[in-house]
Amino acid sequence: SCVGLKNLLQGLSFSVKYYSKHNHLQTTCLSSKIKPKKCHILDCSGSTCTRRTAPPGSILPWRFFSCKEGTKIPSKRKQNTSIITSELLYKNLLKSEQENWNDISARYEAMTKRIKAKLEELHNRYTFNSESPRIKFGENVYFEENGCIFFSKADDGEENVDILFSTEDLGFSDAFIQRIRISPDQRYMAISLKSENSEEATCVIMKLGHFPVMEKVIPNVFSFEWATNDVLYYTSQKNLKCQNVFMTTFSNQKHTKLVYTEQDARFFVDIYCTKDRRFLTINSNSKTTSEVWLVDCRQPFKLPALVQARTKGVIYHIEHRNDELYILTTYGEPAEYKLMKAPVASSGLENWQLVYALEEKTKLVDLEMFSDHSVMFLKKAGHLYLNVISFVSHSVQSVKLPTWACEFELESHPEHTTSTCYFQLTSPVHPPKCFAYSFKENNLIEQAVQEVPIITNCHTTRLLAKSKDETLVPITVFHNMNSKELHRRPLLVHVYGAYGIDLNMSFKEEKLMLIEEGWILAYCHVRGGGELGLSWHKDGCQHNKLKGLYDLKACIMLLHELGFSQPKYTALAAASAGGVLAGALCNTDPELIKAMVLQAPFVDVLNIMMKTHLPLTTEEQEEWGNPLADEKCMKYIKSYCPYQNIKSQCYPSVFITAYENDQRIPLAGVLRYVQKLRKAALDHASKTNKKGNCIPNIILDIQANGSHCISSWEDSLNE
């Protein structure tokens, strides 16, 4: 399994990784006296292994628009004046909102202090024994802690550790380490560094030895892999786009050259390495279509070879085993993922042979390739499964995992010849617990009892709500088993419903805190998301977006009907593109909720989709449609767009967090939304004057630090 696979499975778009394993590396568990880091990500390989320990993981990086809405150079003085006036109004509005926030937040100091202390206590309780992933490369072990990369021998104790790299010592004190790649002979190490306030990463290449030295710095890099001991391939990122692949060498004759350029603005390019390190793959992906080129690691200067020319609607991803390509693809009916294979020498679609096909309404979370097995990590009907495919016996073993589990967190493991697959299971209120599957024994192994036990006083319920068209929509509900009179308990409803992305259901301290204080948590897996496979996403995007809104309404109504809280105690939470459905419900059915919490929300769909100068508008048309080319599409988007449908009525209270440095959600659109919403609420209050009719709180917190994709633990705690 590789970095590109997660991108491919999750809408073929940029994915923030929290850490993952090296294709060629083996892990070992070393204890360390170095203080465990409190944030946030380490991607130390090309394989997918995510571990989300920081609360801001709830912000999903799937709203793609840049906030840098550049304007053309004006040719007339009048236009100049207009732009200056607009900028001045924007600055004044921003200043006014910041002053308003300062006044409001002062009222909540006592509550904030109590909540902060509780979250810190939970964070320390459940992360004190967590370690950064240890990467074993032969006899050597590499790991990252607090902005430093360390090296030790596998048999040495924790005292004998060398520092190979320090962000602070080399002048990158404001950056965190995102990804590490070590060359096959361990002479070079490539590291990507990312600032919390920027989307772009910098790649630093270190020459290792007794005295490691910085060999090269490459700005604006997204993904990179070593083809050989001294040949590195990488993609460059500009304005949230990756369309160029470069090769750079570190032999005596150093040079860099362009090896691939993507011409279609809808496509995003990344690189990863097959599990056996036989090929690098150049993956060009749109939301619905993909194309892969192979670089032979034995002949890295040879031109990349095309696997299969892009075919509209066909997604595919490549792995390699025993001179055959294993192809994870949507080709054929039904349009869910299938595992197929073809000879390397004749890899065209006409030669693809079916190995295994997923059942309908099954979500493929990830695929892990081993020498004699493949493991599929699946979600079906709200439950987690493993499907273990044996290439030797040609059999498939299906393993149902514990019912409390909601999310996989894939762990690093020895090289692909291993006989055991390691992973973790988690839920919003259950910290990660370690499991393993033994290929020899054909059974699931629960790892040794951890110091932190599974939460036992939290009950998990799975429901199905009937939507407007009678489609059954899954809901996952958590509540304290000791809670009485659930209809009087506060309820926090979560929704996303876009890009085929699942709701984030990894462990978060604040969710457990709410459970302990008597709250009910509900996760609505509406159409547009990916919980029930590719068809679930397709049934909720473009001209089907309203289905997600109908699903959300049905879910909340069912919760209330079954006695889980009531409207006056119900809050709705959404982040990023989830703001579309949450904001739409706020317009159509405000009586169902009392409060709404939005984080970096996308609430101005129509205006953004009309602005083709934004770098990712074209790419986003496969999710939202093209209102400039299709009048029906324009009317359809206008029918649900949160900003367009604000009207004078009784709204719930609203709390919005936005980020000054967010390149994906234009801050100007959030400001417009807040101003229009406040005016509508005030208009309604002035017209009705009913007894007990109060004006809702509509609060905007604009964070100077942090960004749409990731924040440090400290920043997220303050938030």
From TrEMBL:
Keyword Hydrolase: yes
Record-annotated Peptidase S9A N-terminal domain positions: 92-443
EC top class named in words: hydrolase
E.C. numbers: 3.4.21.-
SUPFAM superfamilies named among the record's database cross-references: alpha/beta-Hydrolases, Peptidase/esterase 'gauge' domain
Domain of life from the UniProt record: Eukaryota
GO terms classed as biological process: proteolysis
Subcellular compartments: Cytoplasm, Cytosol
GO CC terms: cytoskeleton; cytosol; Golgi apparatus
Family named by the database record: Belongs to the peptidase S9A family.
Protein name: Prolyl endopeptidase
Provenance organism: Grus americana (Whooping crane)
